[in-house]
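User: Hi! Is it possible to get a structure for several chains at once, not just one? Here's what I have:
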Amino acid sequence: MSVTLYHWEPNANSGKPMLTLAEKGVAYESQYLDLLQFDQHKPAYLAINPDGTIPAMVHGSRVLTESTPMMEYIDDAFPGPPLKPGDPRARWRMRWWMRFFDAYFAPSLSMIGWQIFIGPAVRQRPPEELRAAIDRIPLESRRIAWRKAMFNEFSQEELAESKRRVQFATLALERHLGRFQWIAGDTFSLGDINGFNLGYALPLSQPDNCNDAKTPHIMEWLRRIYERPAARETWSKGRTAMAARIKILER
Amino acid sequence: MLELYTSEPNTFFFKPLIALAEKRATFTPRYFDAAGLEQFAVGIPGDLESSLQLEREGPVLVHDGTVICSSFFMLEYISEALPGPSLIPPDAYDAYRARAWGQYLGASLGSSVPVLGAAKYLRPHLDKLDSAWVNQRIAAIEPVERRSGWLALRNGSYTAAYLQAVNDRLAAPVARVEKALREGPWLAGPAFSVADIDAYPMLCVLPDLAAAMVNRDATPRIADYLERVAARESVREALRTARTDHPERQFVPGVESSRWG
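Assistant: Yes, the chains can be modeled jointly so their relative placement is included. Here is the combined structure:
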C-alpha cells in the first residue's frame, strides 16, 4: 500500500509525520501544500480532509488527519526501528509530554509565530481576498485564528499570556530533560520527534528563554536530534526561511 | 502496589475505574471528595507531570511508586501495563482512531461537559460551604490554570450567555459521535476499547446537562450506545465505588478550552 503525505514545511504538525516516516525509513509521496496560499482550504484537499487542517496521510484506503495519533500509527503499521519504548511507564511519559506539547506549549508558541510570521506574510494582500479565504475555512476555530492573524487582532493580553506560558513550558521541559536524556526516558521516541518540531527554532525565536546558559539540557537535546540523519533529510525538504532556522543548531 | 486516588465515579474519575474493572485488576482505592476540595488537602503523591495539571482535575494512579496522571493516557497505561485483555484496538488504524477520539473528545467534551455540570451542581454545592474557607483553599491552588477553573465558578464568569456558548460547543462533538455510531456499536473498531471508556463518562451525563441536544429522538444512536455501555459489568462495578447517592452529579472544572477561540 502506498503512502501519500500532504504537508507544509518541516515544522510543527507537518513535520511530525515527515520526521517519523524518515526515522522509520518509509518512502512516501510528498504533496506539498502552501499554507500561505491557503492550499489546505482548496476543494482538492478538502476532498481528502474536510476539516482543512494539515497534515493528512493516506495509506491505501486509510485517511489520517490528527498528527500525533498519526505518528503512533506510523510506528505501529510499518517495519523499521521502534519509536515507542517497550516499558509502559516510558510510553505513558512519552504520551503525556506529547499532549503537553500539543495542548499547552504549541498553541502559545504558535500564537506568537502567527503574530510575527504568518500574519505579516499574508496581510499585504487585498482585504476582500483575505476575507474570501477566511470564508472557505471549514472549522470555526481555524477561521478565528486566521482572522486574528491576518488582521492583527491578537490582544496584548493574550499575547502576553502566550509569552508567559512559553517561558513556563520551556522551564518545565528543561527540568524534564534534566531528569531524562530523552522525552520518554532512556530511548529516542515519538516524544522527541514531536518536541523537536515544536522547539527546533526556540534558541532563535526565544533567545532569552532558551540558550546554553539557561536551558543547557534543551540545547543539547535539540542538537542531538538535529544530528540524526532523518532530521537532516527532513529539514532539507523545507522551501522557506522558516525551515532554514534549523541551522542555529549547528555545533 | 497499585493505588488509585479518585473521587465519585463520574467524568474523569469514572474512566480508570472502568478500565481497571475490565482488567479485573486488584487495587487500593484512595478516595477524596473532589467537590469538597479534598484533593488540595490530602497528600496525593506527585511528580513533575502531575504538578503541571494538564487536565486541571482528575484521578492519579500510583503503580509501584510511578505516578500516572491524565485520564486518556492512564487508560492506555492500564491496558499496556496490567495483565488481562488489551483495551487498545489490535489493528493499527483502529488504534489510531481510538487515539484521535481521545484527543478530540478530550479537548471538546473535556472542556465543556464539566462546565455545564459544575454550573448545575458544583457551584450551588460550594455556595453551601463556608465562603472564606472555600476562597482560601482556591487561592492556594497551583498552577494558575488549575486555579482559574475554580475561580471561574466564583467570580461571575458563569453567565447565562457563557453557559449557552459552552452548550453550543457540544453540538459538533455530539454530531460526530452520533455519525460514527452508524458504522458500528463502538467508536474505534469492532470491539469495546479505550475510546469508549474515555468517551462514555463524558457522554452519559449529557441527557441531564444538555437534554435538548442529547435524547432518544435527536441522537438515537448515542442513546443506544449509552445503554450498551451502561450494561457492561465493568461499568456497574465502577459505579459501586460511589459514596453518594448521585455520583452523576459530582463535577469538577475540566480541561481548559482552546485559547484560540
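Chain A has twelve helices and four strands. The longest strand of chain A covers residues 3-7.

User: Great, thank you!
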